[in-house]
Design goal:
Helix content: 25-40%
Radius of gyration: 22 Å
CATH topology of the largest domain: Alpha-Beta Plaits
Largest sheet: 4 strands, antiparallel
Strand order of the largest sheet: 2-3-1-4
Number of strands: 4
Strand content: 15-25%
CATH class of the largest domain: Alpha Beta
Length: about 140
Amino acid sequence: MAQEYLIIDKSILPDYFDLVLKTKSLVEDENKSVSLSCKETGISRSTFYKYKDKIFKASQSIGKKAILTMKLSDAAGVLSNVMQDIYSFGGNIITINSTLPINNVAFITIVIDVSNLKIDPQAMVKEFKRINHVKSANIVAVE
């Protein structure tokens, strides 16, 4: 049977769901024992074990990925300059895929975490186009 997930406003859930999350945090982040963590949060160990693998906090990075494609000349330092710009704009590179250069041109696909980006992704692409030897740069998708 396939698992199904729902996004639910926390206000309609029982209070102990939030306590399970706090207990998980104490166990995983602070390396406290399950017994001690349950005592601190005020839930039973059976409640913790019943829900610990079923309750997760929504990631703040959902919907914060961008996929870019670029055509770069086969020149030293071009990809490095693009990467430096990404980091200077507050982006974080998740993956880079590159083809072998053919006729001195390589095609690059970069997935970037844009959750902390200081500028608009479209503005970032315009900046890439100003880099010497960047033939083209486009946003394929933003999640």
